[in-house]
C-alpha cells in the first residue's frame, strides 16, 4: 500500500512503493491497450492512424505516472499545470469521436494511477460494450439518397432516353452544369439526383451506362460529412 509521509504544515504526501508503481503501470497498460483495440475495431472512414492508436496507450500510462507523482500534494498539482501550460498541441483531430477516446484514455490512466482498479475496469468494460454496440448497430447513421450524376452525352442522339431513365429512378432531379466538348460532338451534363424509395445508386449507374448515347457515367454521393 502507498505510504504517507508527514510534512510540516501540509497534508501527508503519498509515497508509492515499487510494487504499487508496477501494478498501477501494468493496469494502465492493459486498460490503455483495451481502449486502443476498441478504437481500431470501431473506427470508420479513411482517417485511421496507427500513431493515434499508440498515443492512446501512451496517454493512459503517462497519466497514471502523473497521478502517482501528484499524490495528494496540491503544490505538485499546481506545478504540473504550470509545466504543461507551456506545451502547445497543434495536432488536428480528424474525427470528433477520437476526442472521446482521448478522454477515455485519460480516465483509465487516472483510475490506474490512483489505485481505483475496480472503477477503471468496470468503466472500461461498460464503455467498450457501448462502443461495440453503437458500431454494430451503426447508430446515428443517416442514409442520404441524394447524388451528383455526371455523364457525357452525344449531341446527335435523342435526349429523351437519358431523361426517361433519370425520371424513372429519381423522385427529383435538377441540372447543375452543362459543358461542351472541344470537338462539339458531346456534352458533359451534371444533375442533382434524389432517388426514389427502394432505388439504389448502382441501379441508376447501370441504367445510364447501358444507354448507347451515354458514356463516362460518374455517380458521387452528396454528403455533408466526408471521411478522409
TrEMBL record:
Entries under InterPro entries matching the protein: DUF4956
Alphabetic keyword roster: Membrane, Transmembrane, Transmembrane helix
Residues that span the membrane, as ranges: 21-39, 51-71
Pfam families named in the record: DUF4956
Protein name stated in the entry: Mg(2+) transport ATPase
Organism: Saltatorellus ferox
Lineage, top ranks: Bacteria, Pseudomonadati, Planctomycetota, Planctomycetia, Planctomycetia incertae sedis
